[in-house]
Amino acid sequence: MRDKTLTKTAVRLAPFSIALLLVWLSAGNLKAAGPAASFPGIEPVLYPVDPVAGEPVWMRLTGYWPSGCLPGGPSVFRPDGVISIRFVVPNTPCPAVMRPIDYKVFLGTLSAGTYGVQLVTELDDASAPPQAFPLKSFEVRPASTGEDLPTAIVQVSPAAPSPRDAVSVTLGGIWPDSCIPTHGHVTREGSVIHVTVAASGQVCKDALTNWSLILPAGSFPEGLYTLSVEPQFPDSRTVKPVLFRFAVLDLVSATETSLQNGRYQVSCRWKSQFDSKIEGWLKGYALATTTAAFWYFDPDKTEVFVRLLTPADGTNNGKTWVAISSLTDIQFWVFVTDTKTGQSKEYHSPPGSGSLIIDTRSFAY
């Protein structure tokens, strides 16, 4: 029985393996791979190209997948300075053809240091060990501020905005005197977003003072933006602006959705109970920090909703709660991955079910 199972798995993997080998050979990779070795046929691009600590970091993967069966995902987890981008490959016979891909992956808001990125492929039924391919390494530089601003905190919310999100800017840190900013103004000039903050008071004490301010910034088209925080002082002195970069990416066509500020990755696969040849991955996007929506063919006709609630949202047992509801009787599977711990779990809604799935115990926060 074991030999038959292994033979069946080998046959299913054969088209994927052969296509992968052909792409690898065509790329001239007969020699030993050095530090710049990458997954055959896929080009990784980092946004921003030279990230600074605290900035949201994205990676775009474009090129050709070496099989006719596109994978599910990607999901991301970050143990020990190595960022793994995981793709789940269906364990079914696949045409030996290459298909174009374009994935936008949120790697997270990273601290200073050196990070390696690898692409991991695994079968959806775990019948074979995962395979890892190095993509690239990159450096995240420490954040720096001017001498007049000892510390400055700049954040955007949500951390991974789409063109449909209303973005807000959170500012704060240590102000050089007691006349802290009380109001501000946001304007956009191309890809530069100017954030002017004005200090209050006329008589300022020479004392370092904590401050914070939240400003609405509106929505932005897809692209890479630079926030330029420009303080204004009552005595008209000038300081260098504090710069912060972030990306706005349209993930409505993606199969993977980030929730809870990128900590959790969620994807959804479906299969028709009426025709076993009809299956695929649902498209999804985040409705809120806690909630994702998935659809089959029309983004205006949502079929599956996934909500993740953490102790910060009020869960009372130290766990992240998973709730899945649907408007369809087609069977589907939901995959949830904790990018911080690497833990993942699959949830199945059987054919004709459409029932509510609730899990309050599996994911430790």
Task: Tell me what you see in this structure.
With 365 residues, this protein is mainly beta. The chain folds into 3 domains: 1-143, no CATH class; 151-248; 251-365, no CATH class. The protein contains 1 helix and 24 strands. The strands form 6 sheets. Strands 15, 16, 17, 22 and 23 form a 5-stranded antiparallel β-sheet that branches. Strands 18-19-20-21-24 form a 5-stranded antiparallel β-sheet, with no helix packed on it. Strands 3-4-6-7 form a 4-stranded mixed β-sheet, with no helix packed on it. The longest helix is centred in the first third of the chain and has 25 residues, at 2-26. Mean pLDDT is 79; it is low at 1-38.
Order of helices and strands: HEEEEEEEEEEEEEEEEEEEEEEEE
| Unreliable sequence segments | 1-38
Secondary structure tally: strands: 24
In this structure, how is the largest beta sheet organized? 5 strands, antiparallel
So what's the overall shape?
elongated
Helix tally equals 1
Backbone structural class: mainly beta
* C-alpha termini separation: 41 Å
Structural domains: how many: 3
Cα gyration radius (Å): 23 Å
What is the helical fraction, as a range of percent?
Answer: under 10%
Beta-strand share of residues = over 45%
Overall mean pLDDT stands at: 79
